[in-house]
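Troubleshooting: if your tokenizer reports a length mismatch, compare against these two reference records.
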Amino acid sequence: MAAVTAEVVVVGAGIAGVSTAYHLASRPGMGRVVVVDPRPPLTLTSDKSTECYRNFWPSPEMVELTNHSISLLEELTEDSGDYFSLSRRGYLFVTSDQQRLDAMARQAEVSSDYGTGPVRHHPGPKPYGEAPDGVDILTHGVLHDAFPYLNDDAVGAIHVRRAGWFSAQQLGALMLERFRSMGGEVISAEVEEIIVLGGRVRGVRIADGSTIEAAAVVVAAGPMSETVAATAGLELPLFSELHLKVSFRDHLGVIPRDAPMVIWSDPQRIDWSDDEREELAALVRDELLGEMPIFCHGRPEGGTDSQYFVGLWEYHQKVMEPVWPLPEDPLYPEVVMRGLTTMVPGLVVYRDRLPPSTVDGGYYTKTGENRPLIGPAGPEGLHLVAGLSGFGVMVAAAAGDLAATHICDEALPLHADAFLLSRYDDPGYLTAVAGLDDHGQL
């Protein structure tokens, strides 16, 4: 290809890269911005996401980041006529353990102090109903009046209100369209090297041997970010976990279409029959026979006329180098359905004959404390939008905006330093995160 010169090269055309490119191109006076990726935009992991968002996190920095991201999403949805179907039905964390409910209520108070919004108790002085933000704490009677399909054993729940889901593919398509309309370009090629001379970035070399000259390069390559950054001599503290999801047809309408994201917050054991347990043991699937982890969850998929429901349960806990196609788990639909049945007993009608289902997924590429890497790192001109874990879709808007703020040397928000790679040079930070027992991951 002919020699190309740009002001900024963004490596990666997933939701993180597209958002970064969009926010850069939106800056007044910004020169040419080029996105480089060998795959079509939004096709590696971005289109496999849960497509959910929430401002409920165990750290003030993550609450601030997601609050800003949600505000940007709200502006975009209003400006575009709800192009990407932004909903706000919330996250409903359900438990059958009173001590766990008490702990969740305490966590809600802490998160409220961080900026999630007010905490409301039900029953209480105000009736339970619609709310723009904050957290509602529901005890047994109120919970089952509002959500009668839940397990009678549930003693309560917390309902996070500034939360919901949207079409990540449509959001990405909207930002990509606007990026191109502002003169941005997407080049289908693989970046083989970030060129660094004299301690600063000079551009990238792509697979055909040609170069794209640029004063700034953004590594936003999702699961490939570690590999791409290494070509500039930068080591990133990232690892990847396999995460799957299953979409099934709830043709009997067990879960109402207006349900929130429902999350069973207790560990559980699947009630396999003796024969099934023997078969699972023979298959060396011992992880399915004992106590299973918390947070089996799911939500309605599609509009009011849809019959589909998306279920997720990260019981694999498998750290691995990303490979494609994804490793298969033929038992995943049944395991998730059994887990969801604990929370929504009506799903038992599907036990003996599972409805049609589709499994896909991707990788959560993350740091050890599950906070992203956003901002300058390594040689001058190199920037990161990486380690977006399972919250890539919900923070992509703010992450791209923050990266653009760094690159354009604008005034930074208070939480900016919390996402720099240089935070690992601070012994106090390392001590603080070493003691964390809640990283905010479902």
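Reference record two:
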Amino acid sequence: MDSRLALILVLAAVSPTAVGEIYKTVDANGNVVFTDIAPIDRSGQPPAKPVTVEPINSYEPPAPTIQPTDAPPPSGDVGYYAQLEVISPAEDETIRDNAGDVQIQVVIAPQLRADHRLLLVLDGNQTEVEAVNGVFELSNVDRGTHTVGGRVVDRQGNVVIESNPATFNLMRVSLGPQDHTPTPH
């Protein structure tokens, strides 16, 4: 089958109401031409022949069922998440920041549901710090060793999943009392 004929047939099948009638002509060089415009009488050329395109089968898929966003969460929240873990800072990493600014990054799969919250667990205590795109932003953290983790809770505050804790060390400059003992000359 000529590729142009195939193209015309596909276009006609996709949009049969937009195409209307299709005509087939052969020009002076023997090239086959398909068009939706009635050809002008050309002397010495065979007359145009209408081409009929058979209707194609079509399929209407059923409408998707969409759960309203205000619907209560489906039962069985436990086991919904396959992964929740701290990926930064690395285990036992030392962070040097005099302002005490620390970013804790977690990975969660699948994505956090709209009716769940991802909260930070710092030194074993749940906080109200929520992750934004999997990142907790902390400031003015005391120097020393800390454990962090993530915890997903539902609307009622029930724990759905919790990551294993990760440990990091924060170093801040300390300007403690200075020894002002005079030195002997």
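Descriptive notes for reference record two:
- Residues 3-14 form the longest helix (12 residues).
- The helical segments are 3-14, 16-19.
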